[in-house]
From TrEMBL:
Nucleotide-binding in keyword set: yes
Positions of ATP binding: K519
Family: Belongs to the protein kinase superfamily. Ser/Thr protein kinase family.
Protein kinase domain ranges (all copies): 491-765
Annotated localization: Cell membrane
Record-level Gene Ontology MF annotations: ATP binding; carbohydrate binding; protein serine/threonine kinase activity
InterPro entries recorded: Bulb-type_lectin_dom, Bulb-type_lectin_dom_sf, Kinase-like_dom_sf, Pan_app, Prot_kinase_dom, Protein_kinase_ATP_BS, S_locus_glycoprot_dom, Ser/Thr_kinase_AS
Protein name, as recorded: Receptor-like serine/threonine-protein kinase
Length: 820
């Protein structure tokens, strides 16, 4: 039996080390139990935990539910979000008078389920494996008295409802946290539209609607303004409505997926899935797409700017009201003046000083302006000065408008946007330098400058050529090079790296020893101003998987682009190499495919305007020193202009990657890039061109082989580049082959977006077996018709259009969606 005193000692040690958790059921709080300190209860399947937690570096504690199998503590529900506690050991959560109640250290009830119960002695609280905390009248009761899914905070869990009560016209709300360390209700909330449109809306401060999902389409099961749901492979939404209520709910196609839908404190709704491999939450989808589309995100007198972090900044003459909140990305408090207005300090204008106005061009004007009937901008300014509470004015073709309130929802547009207006912000006179100070500064600056110029002028003349090469003229974020400078840098364009339909590429070295790649363009007909405008637009597009444009040269008909040099060249040089040379490892190939997809996703979905590459192929995927893939030539379609369609059909290296819609003559979308990307994936797997002559003399089309192996559950490793000797994970090869087959579907609506391709390759989304494209069945085994994939001559165009039309119509009726 052993020593009984030793056993008792061990039990006592275990009791205290577990924080007295032995007094609680595994997933239940009974009438005679309480939860305090570090005690927790865990759902029966081990998915969720209920207990006290503290967010971030906060010193406040809250009762909440979080994921047990996620290493990063992620609360999905908070009870006392407005009334935190400081001492968790003197606070307790327990059943009291038939309710679940949280008492603070002074034994004051600060949160309760607030229901009426006649049998309080048998009530229990149970944490279910869905993350739902349920209050029941006894452990064997099935009907809940109360449940947390009916009272969501900022997270909408699978199985939960966001409901509209038609009798009271009240909606259940999903309300954001105030910031990452404060779960108190924030300014942003999601609800089902009370007007009965069967759409969701996001509100600012429960008053201002700034986003809607559009109406629900019961047939396609998507919201009309959220087309991304069309190829959603994670969530299964459903809608229910009767005379009492309407609500949406959703489930997961794969129950093992850990996913959540939140109303974020950024003012965006987000769907996120947990990636165990990278130990982080992966963003699946968010709305509104742009941060500055969130109403008043930067608060009063704050300005929102897309394209960089932080998004918010205070206007000149203003500072954040709360630096603490500002550092937590909570900008809702806005900004306040650094100096009081002159009209407030000196209402009688005894000093003779008046407030002045700071010009802010190219902005989105706030709303709630008051129109004034005046005839000039000076009269508009004078009108604003008449009112001490007038904060700004604007004068343009729409007349004079003044603002008598705090300025909300200001947005600073980029320089290439012509939608902006000019607003004049009222500031105290002391915010502007006086004219006498200006004169002294100007006189001193002129005198110093003259002396300096006299000392440097001779030296500058001799150094001018060298300096211009090392430090070319800066235009926006790009450098403007001289043609002769690039001619010298490339040794008169002697070291050619490659060529394509748009021109030739040469290696060059600047005098600061930096290595560049210079593309000499042809077929460029734009004028000087148009070319510079186009190049500036492309220069703003920056992503780790896009080749960076460093600068340009535009001198008459000479048009050149200067890029970063990629030491490992283009992907085709590594894929289609001699058999004795070293082949790319599978891991490298997979990362190249994923990086390319990320770059295309940025072009299609993240830029201000969707950019269609139109020429995806291994030759246009460059590799840096670490074999990180960089999509090249992504802006040339925009530069080429109207001649691009003609150039594309005769371009070297493009044959074999053209989507059917190019040849059929219909307008193309970003799905044309998806098709080309899919064709390239096949070549990444096989290490050879898709169409080629085999030992038996017959022409084989590799995508057909892949489709047959995938649909017949064959050996996917047999598709692999023979130089890899089968050294690749089966699941990754299968995944990339399935994605490739989905990408080359005849009907472009059946192809995934590049964003979905990224999520599939990352393992976030599952991908089902694709249907075999009809075009593969019709053309692939007939060498006469393989021309469909490799040529686009005018002599074949009419017959091809007819074939493509027939194939597409059959494909629409015979293919199924990726998630079916």
């Amino acid at each position: 039996m052993g020593n009984p005193w030793l056993k008792l000692t061990v039990l006592l040690v275990m009791w205290f080390s577990l924080g007295c958790q032995l007094s609680l059921g595994a997933d239940t709080i009974s009438a005679n139990q309480s939860l305090s300190g570090n005690q927790t209860i865990v759902s029966s399947g081990g998915h969720f935990v209920l207990g006290f937690f503290t967010p971030g570096k906060s010193s406040n504690y809250y009762i909440g539910i979080w994921y047990r199998k996620v290493s990063e503590q992620t609360p999905v529900w908070v009870a006392n979000r407005e009334t935190p506690v400081r001492d968790i050991y003197s606070s307790e959560l327990k059943i009291s008078d038939g309710n679940l109640v949280l008492f603070n250290g002074s034994q004051i009830a600060i949160w309760s389920t607030n229901i009426s119960s006649t049998s309080s002695g048998s009530v229990v609280a149970v944490l279910e494996d869905s993350g739902n905390l349920v209050l029941r009248d006894g452990p064997n009761s099935s009907a809940p008295l109360w449940q947390s899914l009916d009272h969501p905070t900022h997270t909408w869990l699978p199985g939960g409802k966001l409901m509209l009560n038609k009798r009271t016209n009240q909606s259940q709300l999903l309300t954001s946290w105030k910031n990452s360390e404060d779960p108190a209700p924030g300014l942003f909330s999601l609800e089902l539209d009370p007007s009965g449109t069967n759409s969701y809306i996001i509100l600012w401060n429960r008053t201002r609607r700034y986003w809607t999902s559009g109406a629900w389409d019961p047939q396609s099961k998507i919201f009309s303004l959220v087309p991304e749901m069309r190829l959603n492979y994670i969530y299964n939404f459903s809608f229910y409505s009767d005379e009492n209520q309407s609500y949406f709910t959703y489930s997961l196609y794969n129950p093992e997926t850990i996913s959540r839908f939140i109303m974020d404190y950024s003012g965006q709704i987000k769907q996120l899935s947990w990636l165990e491999s990278s130990q982080q939450w992966n963003l699946f989808w968010s709305q509104p797409r742009q941060q500055c589309q969130v109403y008043a995100f930067c608060g009063a007198f704050g300005s929102c700017t897309e394209g960089g972090l932080p998004f918010c900044s205070c206007l000149r003459g203003f500072v954040p009201k709360s630096n603490v909140n500002w550092n937590l990305s909570d900008f809702s408090d806005g900004c306040e003046r650094t100096t009081r207005l002159q009209c407030e300090e000196d209402p009688g204008l005894a000093t003779g000083k008046t407030d002045k106005f700071q010009e802010s061009p190219n902005v989105k004007l706030p709303q709630n302006a008051r129109s004034m009937s005046v005839g000039s901008i000076s009269e508009c300014e004078s009108t604003c000065l008449e009112y001490c509470n007038c904060t700004a004015y604007a004068y343009d073709s729409d007349g004079c408008r003044i603002w008598m309130t705090e300025l909300l929802d200001l947005q600073q547009y980029s320089e290439d946007t012509s939608d902006g207006k000019t607003i004049y912000i009222r500031l105290a006179a002391s915010e502007f330098p006086s004219s006498s100070n200006n004169n002294r500064i100007i006189i001193g600056a002129v005198a110093g400058s003259v002396g300096l110029i006299l000392c440097l002028v001779i030296f500058a003349v001799f150094r001018w050529r060298r300096q211009r090469m090392i430090n070319p003229k800066v235009e926006g974020s790009l450098l403007a090079f001289g043609y002769r400078d690039l001619q010298n840098a490339t040794k008169n364009f002697s070291e050619k790296l490659g060529e394509g339909g748009f021109g030739f590429v040469f290696k060059g070295t600047l005098l600061d020893s930096s290595i560049i790649a210079v593309k000499q363009l042809k077929s460029i007909s734009q004028g000087e101003k148009q070319f510079r405008s186009e190049v500036s637009t492309i220069g703003m597009v920056q992503h780790v998987n896009l080749v960076r444009l460093r600068g340009f040269c535009s001198e008459g008909m000479r048009k050149l682009l200067v890029y970063d040099y990629m030491p490992n060249g283009s992907l085709d040089a590594h894929l289609f190499q001699q058999e004795n040379s070293e082949a790319l490892a599978w891991k490298t190939r997979y990362q190249i495919a994923l990086g390319t997809a990320r770059g295309l996703t940025y072009l299609h979905e993240k830029c201000r305007d969707c950019i269609i590459h139109c020429d995806i192929k291994p030759e246009n995927i460059l590799l840096d020193a670490e074999f990180c893939s960089k999509v090249a030539d992504f802006g040339l379609a925009k530069l080429i202009g109207r001649d691009f369609s003609r150039v594309l059909t005769t371009m070297r290296g493009t044959r074999g990657y053209l989507a059917p819609e190019w040849i059929s003559g219909v307008a193309v979308t970003a799905k044309a890039d998806v098709y080309s990307y899919g064709m390239m994936l096949f070549e990444i797997v096989s290490g050879r061109r898709n169409s080629g002559q085999h030992e038996d003399g017959k022409v084989r089309f590799f995508p057909t082989s892949v489709a047959r192996v995938i649909t017949q559950d064959g050996d996917v490793l047999s598709l692999l580049d023979t130089q890899l000797n089968g050294d690749a994970p089966v699941e990754e090869v299968s995944r990339i082959c399935k994605v490739a087959c989905w990408c080359i579907q005849d009907d472009e609506t059946q192809r995934p977006s590049m964003g979905q391709v990224v999520q599939i390759l990352e393992g976030v989304l599952d991908v089902n077996v694709p249907p075999v494209p009809r075009s593969l069945n019709v053309f692939a085994d007939n060498s006469e018709h393989i021309i469909f994939f490799t040529e686009s001559s005018a002599s074949q165009s009419s017959q091809t259009r007819s074939n493509t039309s027939n194939v597409s119509s059959q494909a629409k009726s015979n293919t199924s969606s990726m998630s079916s």
